[in-house]
Design a protein that fits this description.
The chain is built from 57 helices and 44 strands. The chain is an alpha+beta fold.
Amino acid sequence: MARLADYFVLVAFGPHPRGSGEGQGQILQRFPEKDWEDNPFPQGIELFCQPSGWQLCPERNPPTFFVAVLTDINSERHYCACLTFWEPAEPAQAAAGAEDAAGRDEEADEGGSGRLSPAASGPPGPLFAPKTLVLVSRLDHADVFRNSLGLIYTIHVEGLNVGLESVVGNLLTCVIPLAGGSQRTISLGAGDRQVIQTPLTESLPVSRCSVALLFRQLGISNVLSLFCAALTEHKVLFLSRSYQRLADACRGLLALLFPLRYSFTYVPILPAQLLEVLSTPTPFIIGVNAAFQAETQELLDVIVADLDGGTVTVPECVSVPPLPEPLQSQTHSVLSMVLDPELELADLAFPPPAASPSSLKMQDKELRAVFLRLFAQLLQGYRWCLHMVRIHPEPVIRFHKAAFLGQRGLVEDDFLMKVLEGMAFAGFVSERGVPYRPTDLFDELVAHEVARMRADESHPQRVLRHVKELAEQLYKNENPYPAVAMHKVQRPGEASHLRRAPRPFPRLDEGVVQWIVDQATAKMQGAPPAVKAERRTTVPSGPPMTAILERSSGLHGNSARRLEVVRNCISYVFEGKMLEAKKLLPAVLRALKGRAARRCLVQELHLHVQQNRAVLDHQQFDFVVRMMNCCLQDCTSLDEHGIAAALLPLVTAFCRKLSPGVTQFAYSCVQEHVVWSTPQFWESMFYGDVQAHIRALYLEPAEDWGPSQVAEAPAEDERSALDVASEQRRLWPTLSREKQQELVQKEESTVFSQAIHYANRMSYLLLPLDSSKSRLLRERAGLGDPESASNSLVTSSMAGSVAESYDTESGFEDAETCDVAGAVVRFINRFVDKVCTESGVTSEHLKGLHVMVPDIVQMHIETLEAVHRESKRLPPIQKPKLLRPRLLPGEECMLDGLRVYLLPDGREEGSGGSGGGPALLPAEGAVFLTTYRVIFTGMPTDPLVGEQVVVRSFPVAALTKEKRISVQTPVDQLLQDGLQLRSCTFQLLRMAFDEEVGSDSAELFRKQLHRLRFPPDIRGTFAFTLGSAHTPGRPPRATKDKAPSLRTLSRNLVKNAKKTIGRQYVTRKKYNPPSWEHRGQPPPEDQEDEISVSEELEPSTLTPTSALKPSDRMTMSSLVERACCRDYQRLGLGTLSSSLSRAKSEPFRVSPVNRMYAICRSYPGLLIVPQSVQDNALQRVSRCYRQNRFPVVCWRSGRSKAVLLRSGGLHGKGVVGLFKAQNAPSPGQSQADSSSLEQEKYLQAVVSSMPRYADMSGRNTLSGFSSAHLGGHGKWGSVRASGRSGGLSGDVGSRLAGRDTLAPPQANGAPPDPGFLRPQRAALYIIGDKAQLKGVRPDPLQQWELVPIEVFEVRQVKTSFKKLLKACVPGCPATEPSPASFLRSLEDSEWLTQIHKLLQVSVLVVELLDSGSSVLVSLEDGWDITTQVVSLVQLLSDPFYRTLDGFRLLVEKEWLSFGHRFSHRGAHTLAGQSSGFTPVFLQFLDCVHQVHLQFPMEFEFSPFYLKFLGYHHVSRRFRTFLLDSDYERIELGLLYEEKGERRGPQPCRSVWEYVDRLSKRTPAFYNYMYAPEDSEVLRPYSNVSNLRVWDFYTEEALSEGPPYDWELAQGPPEPLEEERPDGGAPQSRRRVVWPCYDSRPRAQPDAISRLLEELQRLEVELGRPPERWKDTWDRVKAAQRLEGRLDRRGAPSSLLVSSVPHHRRSLGVYLQEGPVGSTLSLSLDSDQSSGSTTSGSRQAARRSTSTLYSQFQTAESENRSYEGTLYKKGAFMKPWKARWFVLDKTKHQLRYYDHRVDTEYKGIIDLAEVEAVAPGTPTMGAPKTVDEKAFFDVKTTRRVYNFCAQDVLSAQQWVDQIQSCLSDA
């Protein structure tokens, strides 16, 4: 029984103490005045009466009612029912309120109390003050409270003749039962009657209609997310303008959580003064008036539910886990069936008559029933995971969370994991875990209805029926007596609040009320206490649990076959059939990935243990340990499936005898698993064991128990621990005091003995065999740091756990032996403390345990020492012998092989993959470190793969990243240290060290590797140490010697030059560099002709060429021999005559101004500059450019004579520069100004030196880019449209930078409007970085023009390359490999985007050069992207560079001589280590490869050549790609030592020499499809869709390692089967080629290589000296060509034919010229060209139309047709159209096409039918602007064709060509 109301309070408005307009609540009276003993008066009631604050009001509002909830310190809830009404304010109150009258309007809006109406203008009216009647109760009977308070108000307002004191007294003394379904009628003595029904069971919440209202306001999804949020302990805030709605919503949400109880802050109505509570860190459910929504905006982690708006807002930083599927979707659909039953019938053609919807109260119970079912499904079988730790004196129960999650199959599920870890669930376990207690609806449901719920899942109607049944029970619980008598309570009349009340609410007489209360209390004390006997029963456990979703465990279905294999293997092991067991072992290890197989293994092993001991021999022991390790490898730290728990007794059972008295147990070999260091695992194991022992304790039939009790017990073995506990709890009250004490003691000592046992067990598994190895502990976060283990959930398996930063783990800064023991003792002590206090061990026992633990650990360490000592003496297991790698001549082994396992790294090759080969990795072998490479050689660990040797290697210099990893060895499943080495040659060594490799050896390997990768000096690299006496350890020279050494050098140069005077300069002279010893000395005084660096810098010596001193002239003899000069001679850019003077007529000259590298260190010694510029001016020009790299000419077009220049970018700051806005010249002109003037003169000189600069007509004045492609201004967007640089900077620049998609080309390819005049084309374009060229002013004479483009920076190349590496070689096997994931990561790397940009810029430059404009490329420092662009432009424009010799020359000239920083970008030395590897040259090679793919017949070298260079530019095997400039190479004496005769066969130091030697022996670098067209300019497509991933990045052959070290790759061929040494009969000459293992080009060479090899073999057999392959090939080609000439009828059947039909010759961007002036139409990457081309531009736009006839073209010119654009009049009434015509002399026809690039012709005119060609006349619709003489007609036997050429000249040429064709025939 309980009081209906504890307190009645009257609260009124009082002024605020600080005098603000806000008032505050004052308690006028409260009854009873002194607190009840069992229930003190709650504080702060006055805040809750007016949650929005106490305010006066200008008019009388109707009374309001709501129920607030307060929670006291004991978590008891107090319900405060508040009824508020308004009375005229007393003068004092009114005065207080008037002070703030002005701001009242805003308050009305902001405070939102809704009670303030704007004050009328004029005198203020009367004010009204709120007064509140409050009932405080611990019972939740809101309706009764409403009626009772209403009655009191009614008596006051209506002036009824009833004493208020007696009503209040009766209210306070009314007593009602708590539960049990009784019905009580009460009256307050005012002629009223109320019926109170109590719920049937107290544990079920009472919700009335609140749940149904919540769903109405928010909808299904929103309520579900609130439900999940409340369960997973998030903060939930409700907003509404109604307090009653807030209270209902909070009550509804709590009702949904049943059977869990919400245990955090719960405030359905929060007063405004307490809003700061919302920033509490703990979870809560709170309701706040919507008026305060603004104050809640800045809460970042609160889920806000707006009841009035129907929305739920979840902040970004909060993730609410949803219910596990399929429960989420099932719950959703059932809820919609309950809320919207018509949804199912909405689509029916003949809907049944609508059933009447449930009442709101019934719907409320149906919704709750859905959630009750949901909890029953979620928590089904939970009682099977309860551990009874103690039964007496009070039950202690623990829940085995991991087992529950494992058996439900929800280990990964975030939602359930959080629910089980939450406070609500902990309360659930302690409340409902008790085995003997009253049960309720949920217990019945979870025990008996689970099977029914599973069966109903797929039948919605049956589910609905079940829901309705449950709803009935819930409804009955709340309303046990449906036919209740109606309440009878007086209510005030309509609008009674507006009538003027006779008086304010009276003050009640305290004495009267107190007297009534006292009387009732006395009466109660006399009455006997009503004790309601609780019906306690044993709680049913229900069926064992099943998985929520039957998931097969990945690939390993638990097939019976696998389990059979496991059983067989184990029986073989124990029968001693070791060979059989060994065969089965790999299959067993694979099967053990499946859970069932692991369980099976554990069961089988249990069968072989007798009396807790099983002694094995060494081999058996090894097998058992390996299988155990494999089992444990996939256990997470929680051990959900109980595998580790089942193995725990076995690891202390299996053992082997090492020597007399020394036994090694299995636990010493299975320690490396995370599960052993997880406190939760040990706790659940401990509690499980304690439960088993306690059950056994009570199951032993006790002698002293009465026979009746024994007889009652059912069959002993079947009863679970919970049943036993329930029985014991039932008997407990009947036992005597002594018996009770005895039982408590027995239980306590059981727990204590288990604690000792577990302290031993833990020391077994935590102390490593070798206590000096503390690695084990470091990896176990749990041992070092209690928090990290107990709170974090370690779900990742150990296989991937990387322990790079060992020393940062807490507690292991100095991991000495003693510290291992200390850490273990601490870990065990923490465990003992926790479990013993939880399970009620006495403090004396606990102290004893603490004393014992260190002794246990110490004892165990001592036994382990003996075991460790003896185990070292065991004969090692036979390991495969190490395979020694083949080394290059001069390559030395630095570290002999360390045994390692090579693990799979995510590439398919090693794992068999799509290639279909076997899984070659993991492989077992050794890693070797040589002076040149890191090499792994070994064999696959899987014995079924066969005896394949696996080789993987890469140059030490290519190492880009090395990191320590911690991985499991594939065979023993032991956790081992490992290394992951990644190289920029796209190799990855992911290795686990064998256990025999000590950590010191591994560390030594790392240090040696690091030393070789980053030598302190470049002379420590392999290219230098190879075959020389210089050792890597020698200290480098002091840098201060640099100047003297250069001086000495120049002296030597002079000497050498003297000797060479009078010779031809092309003769090669060996240059002897000064010895190192000689370099450091100061120069002797009497040395003649000394040239010093300091002199070089004085302007006076920078004289023009003609005045060179003789000594200077001689210095250059060596410089002339450089590759650059040979190329400049070829291009006609200047030769050095013997007098070193130039013919003035030539526009450019070779200047030796930089011969001492004084002006620019990174430029070559000889430079091409305009003839008119003096040498001394160059010094000043150079200051304007970064790194002093001023513009110099590097190539000249043979046809258009335009030149390509390169330079560094302009200085951003400091130099006013050529283009900046001109300042007024100051009297003393600054040096910067003079520099910029020099620079302007210099550019002027470049422009002037172009031969056709003066001729501004015709082809040289091509206008800007066609708007069809560049979407410019108006119809033809000019380059110079808005200020000359404006049009391009916004247009081309952004387009080239890829900022803008290219507009489609003109649809029909129509020619431009000939009448449109175009502005002229600039003579020089400067391609610069957009950022530098800001604020640039145009050149006044419009001779040069800026093209600002956005290029990527070098650091972007670096990061992009890192991502490319990760994409191509992931590093660890992908979880679900798919082509899409590779493509996604490839796209993320942006590598192809950068290549696209490079190709696009290059094609633009090619276009400009081809049209006759010169181009200066001036980007960044001039040595990275500039070099890439300039080299690509030359490669595309000049066929010479597409030959082997030409490409070498291009690289030597542009990359080596012009100072690309190979050493810096490749991080070759210790100094460059921090800058990292940046593959600028590799990117260039990739671009070349893309062009090679598109034009396979234009390159003399093969794709292999590019890969070869890509590999060796980072390998440091050759000296070619070392150092950053010619200057540095001269300093080291490298530049000229390659020249001259060699004594004896020395190893190749230059990569070119190596290529030459190799090319003589093999055609590996030659492209058989090479059939170039003369003067072909290549225009490749550059869109990303046209680019391909270079196979250099992805391919590998594990049989021999990278194929780029030819001597190693071409190993001895495998003997064919007929030569088998075993003497057996030859079966066949076949051998298996594995795509993932063998190098396919070697195993299956192409047909031509095969024939050439065959020829050589036959010649050797005949005894002839074999001819070189190249001579043979040239002979065959010549013969073919001859045959082609003789056979005029068709295409020659030639070896030269491309294997791809119609492989395009040139694509991409076309330049075409129109009839007037011309247009530079950039049809970037389109298949069509727009505009028309004059007949004269035959080379400018080579045709690429191909019909079947011209599909195969040799390089002969007779077959080339005459072609161009003509206008043709259509047949009768058709208009004139521009068509592309091709005159084919061989086939004797004139074909025409829609577009130049089309392959299908539109029509043919057979020349055999032509009768005459005559001049024509313009007809209607003909082009207007064309001269009349440009028309001609061709008359055939069928019709007359009317043609119009673009000008008279081309018309004449066409007529002549057709005439000559006719005459030939």
